[in-house]
Design brief:
559 residues, alpha/beta, 16 helices, 33% helix
Length: 559
């Protein structure tokens, strides 16, 4: 490791843990990195930093057990789907947590470095990695209550309690930012009495104590194992909550940023082509703070405000708030970019729209979702009140009322127009598997579990889905064909490079217009999207006129 990099790591560890502990921790970390470099020399040399992502990069978001196929593991079934009806569409796959787990559909991890036997094996992961860039989840904020680490605490194993945070239940924690309505502290019986343990998300998701340098080293080893197993991108799940200090909001603390900076410094030297992506379902300014100075934290951040703003645009037929927000976007460097998405395995977060949409407008979105058969999930506020945290629905049903008699062709046009906006914007697109086929809400999953997010998590028998895709009377095949065409068009156009510049044009309140430029100046594309149910005639920046039918998309090469 170069001396400057070692100095940087030592400085970060000294800031986190003090000079003496920081020095000892850095020595142990250096030994770990030397062993890793010998084990995995293939990650060097690296591509130039501004070439590690291109216009060709499209990431599919999917669970490892999304598909079932006889005599195949679920991961093998996923590979079959990507060879079959979903062939040649995406370049990468975000495999949602595929580790053994106990709850939250994978996000309560029992063993960070094992593949859930119900899904398959590391060989199945390797088979996918051979053809796709893979994104792994690093669920670093918490671990399952059934994990060995936490069971050791419950059994009174010496030192086990240092991995977790135990507090007096009378501690004033009202300032702590809460993403849920469940209690922040959960009581557990131990040989020395009841311990009240910090549990940000649920009683089965036990927060880890990164103030313990030993824990930091253990989690760093997990990240290096993911790189060794083929991860091209590492998603830092719920990273904003990582570090806790009583008397603060316990979100986005300086120490959290320093941990991300440490991991970035480590990967830059042992695996420089592996990129960090931070998942922070928060307002925009907090979200982009994880870019750091543009060179020292995440290379990608989730673009959380996009989904509620696009949904609001189509609900009102007015793109002005979306356009105004997009016009203010900027990147701190040529090696950072946004991860753009509309739908995901989770709900549609509304907190990121705070300060952009009014509370009345957010309330209107919540009302629309509920009228379309969706649900609203809430969080607790410091004053004891509750407010919407996310809206739960598939993207197709969020946009269009499934009970209405509106023609299906119009609903599909609306859906495709919304996806085109996401694909046109500066950044790397993330496409949830259900958005490739225009899924409707899965009410049996909600009814069986009571979990709102299950509306958007239906799993499929691959043969049955393939038959549905071939049936001309169903929407799935039409949506897949149009999404595939749109994505392939984007992948082939240099103007859509993640770091190619963009300019928002104010042409008509109902038109979201973004012009994209290739970084080398070789191509310019003007992307026009009608978010309304009315025909619009507009004047282009060139002075010519253009007509867009309801929900029409036109991507025009600019000479």
């Amino acid at each position: 490791m170069r001396e400057t990099s070692q100095n940087r790591i030592e400085a970060l560890l000294a800031s986190l843990y003090g000079a003496d502990v920081g020095q000892l921790t850095s020595q142990r970390l250096l030994t770990m990195l030397q062993a890793y470099a010998i084990r995995c020399p293939q990650h060097s040399p690296a591509r130039p930093a501004d070439e590690r992502l291109t216009a060709d990069d499209i990431i599919l978001i999917t669970y490892g057990d999304q598909f079932r196929k006889p005599d195949h593991t679920p991961l093998q079934s996923l590979a079959s789907a990507l060879d079959g009806p979903f062939a040649a569409i995406v370049s990468g796959v975000h495999l949602l947590p595929f580790y053994p787990y106990t709850s939250d559909d994978g996000f309560s991890v029992v063993d960070y470095t094992a593949v859930d036997p119900a899904l398959g094996t590391w060989d199945d992961i390797e088979a996918l990695r051979a053809r796709y860039r893979l994104m792994f989840d690093a669920v670093v904020n918490h671990i399952s209550a059934s994990s060995t680490w936490f069971r050791d605490l419950l059994a009174g194993v010496p030192g086990a309690e240092e991995r977790f945070l135990s507090l007096d239940p009378n501690t004033d924690l009202r300032q702590v930012t809460r993403p849920r309505v469940s209690p922040l502290l959960t009581p557990f019986k131990t040989p020395t009495g009841v311990r009240h343990i910090w549990t940000t998300f649920s009683a089965d998701q036990i927060d880890l104590n990164f103030a313990n340098p030993e824990l930091l080293l253990e989690m760093t080893a997990v990240l290096l194992e993911y790189v060794a197993k083929g991860a091209s991108l590492i998603r830092l799940d719920a990273i904003g909550y990582l570090w806790k200090e009583v008397g603060t909001r316990c979100i986005h603390l300086p120490q959290t940023h320093q941990v991300v900076q440490l991991w970035r410094a480590i990967l830059d030297h042992v695996a420089p082509d592996v990129l960090l992506i931070t998942e922070t379902n928060v307002p925009h300014a907090d979200n982009v703070s994880y870019f750091g100075d543009g060179s020292n934290e995440a290379q990608l951040v989730y673009q959380f405000p996009l989904a509620p703003l696009v949904l609001h645009s189509f609900a009102t037929g007015d793109a002005r708030q979306l356009s105004g927000w997009a016009a203010g976007l900027s990147l701190p460097s040529s090696t950072t970019t946004f991860f753009n998405f509309l739908a995901s395995h989770d709900g549609i977060g509304v907190v990121p729209a705070t300060g952009i949409l009014s509370q009345a407008e957010i309330g209107a979105l919540c009302g629309q979702i509920e009228s379309h058969g969706g649900r609203v999930s809430y969080k607790s506020n410091p004053d004891g009140s509750q407010s919407p945290y996310e809206i739960n629905s598939t993207w197709f049903d969020a946009l269009s009322d499934p009970a209405s008699d509106e023609p299906m062709t119009r609903k599909i046009d609306r859906f495709i127009a919304s996806q085109a906006i996401m694909l046109a914007l500066q950044g790397v697109p993330g496409v949830y598997i259900h958005s490739l086929v225009g899924s409707g809400n899965y009410h049996p999953g909600l009814q069986a579990s009571g979990i709102h997010r299950r509306l958007n998590r239906e799993k499929w028998d691959l043969a049955e889905l393939t038959a549905r895709l071939a049936d001309p009377t169903r929407r799935e095949g039409t949506v897949l064909a149009r999404m595939a065409h749109l994505i392939r068009t984007r992948r082939a156009a240099p103007a859509f490079h993640p770091n190619g510049s963009q300019q928002i044009h104010d042409l008509d309140p109902a038109i979201f217009a973004v012009e994209r430029h290739a970084p080398d100046g070789s191509q310019r594309i003007l992307c026009l999207h009608n978010v309304s149910a009315t025909t619009r005639q507009i004047t282009l920046p060139t002075g010519t006129t253009c007509t867009l039918e309801p929900y029409q998309v036109r991507w025009l090469t600019v000479s």
